[in-house]
Design a protein that fits this description.
Strand content: 25-35%
Shape: globular
Number of helices: 2
Mean pLDDT: 78
Radius of gyration: 13 Å
Number of strands: 5
Length: 96
């Protein structure tokens, strides 16, 4: 696995269920589709580079879609370390 990747993924937190998922796509109605944060799903992850303009476009659409920011958290993780990073993030979010 390349440890010098410039790829990142979007991690979404459902604050009600306390579950984390990875953004995989946006459908025709601008709904974000997600997958479980497992390395085996890495081909489905919506990846972006730090300097991509697509990031700004995605964030603008994402913000429009989610009108209740208190329900959903959004985090950025390196794409090559998703599974271990999500475990650490999940533990961190469990602690008030």
């Amino acid at each position: 696995m390349d440890t010098n990747t410039n790829d990142y993924v979007f991690v979404l937190e459902d604050k009600e269920s306390k579950k984390l998922s990875i953004a995989s796509s946006v459908d025709a109605k601008s709904n974000v589709q997600t997958v479980e944060p497992l390395d085996t799903h890495s081909r489905q992850f919506m990846k972006f580079s730090k300097n991509d303009s697509i990031f700004r476009n995605f964030m603008e659409n994402f913000t429009k879609q989610f009108n209740d920011p208190s329900k959903t958290g959004l985090y950025r993780l390196r794409a090559d370390k998703v599974e271990s990073s999500v475990m650490i993030l999940q533990e961190t979010l469990q602690q008030p």
